[in-house]
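sorry for the late reply, my laptop died twice this morning and i had to redo everyting from scratch. anyway the thing you sent over, i finally got around to it. pasting the sequence first so we're on the same page, its 275 residues, then the predicted structure underneath. double check i copied it right bc i was rushing
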Amino acid sequence: MISKPELFGLALCGGKSARMKTPKAEIDYHGMPQWQHALALLSRHCAKAFLSVSPYWRPADMHVPQIPDRFEQSFGPLTGILSAMRTHPSVAWLVIGVDMPFMDDDAIRALIHNRDADRLVSAFCHVDKMVEPLCAIYEPSVLSTLLEFWAAGTHCPRSILRTIGAHLIVAHNDRWLQNVNHIEEREEAKLSCSAKKTVQITYFAQLREQRGCSSEILETAMRSLRELYSELQTKHEFSLKPEHMRVAVSDRFVDWNTQMQSGDHIVFVPPVAGG
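ok and here's the structure:
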């Protein structure tokens, strides 16, 4: 069995941030600058992690692992991706953009778990199958192809991935791929990221077997019970769909679209065999 190429992480930080009016990498969504959050996230899942930096932005601490743009003229995110691949051409690169503040460990795990190393690129896509090139794994074999597109004047990563037929992975949590590019979006994202709730969850029957425990206390940024179950379903590979179960909060059955509150006791009730 041929092993997969080693995986390095790359957080793209080098844009002009013209619409945001301030460097996106410096925005604090999680109690730290977004570049620091993204670098820590990648470091937990990749052998090594780097920031992609440019003349437009770089961290004040020069000891932070980083890869400067290797092209005199920037042509967007492709500049950072190619610079990283030319610096370490024998590894695969898991690329994320710093303008995706809702990217989390579950998203990275899902991307890595569904990676197809025999394809040139494995990328998340939206439910409408629109590929997201800034949340993707680029295998070392794609480098020559990317350089060919660059030389031909095609610099849009999304267009390139559509053309080469990237391996698409549907992001089951819509928020993972949410871009924050404007000041109004930034303030809303800050509020959403800070509004995490602590809830207690009880599992029964099949869910208890698949989770490996009967209850747990967790912190979540999800708003509705449906969003919470989607998050848990992706994380723990639950086989049951919401429409096949009932859900209760504080001993009362409720609708899946019910908004959660911190301190809620949530019970997922699978169908029970027998009469």
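The two ends are 49 Å apart (CA to CA).
thats about all i looked at so far, will dig more tmrw
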